[in-house]
């Protein structure tokens, strides 16, 4: 039985750079919940 992986990403004012960082963090921590806050 496969475990469902839950990813929660919150990006505020990150733009394309924020999306890139979020993708990299998800790739590195594929089994963790990731919350990212970018304040501009």
From TrEMBL:
InterPro entries: FAD/NAD-bd_sf
Name this polypeptide is given: Uncharacterized protein
Origin organism lineage: Bacteria, Bacillati, Cyanobacteriota, Cyanophyceae, Pleurocapsales
């Amino acid at each position: 039985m496969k475990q469902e992986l839950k990813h929660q990403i919150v990006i505020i004012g990150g733009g394309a750079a924020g999306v890139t960082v979020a993708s990299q963090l998800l790739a590195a921590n594929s089994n963790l919940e990731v919350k990212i806050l970018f304040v501009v």
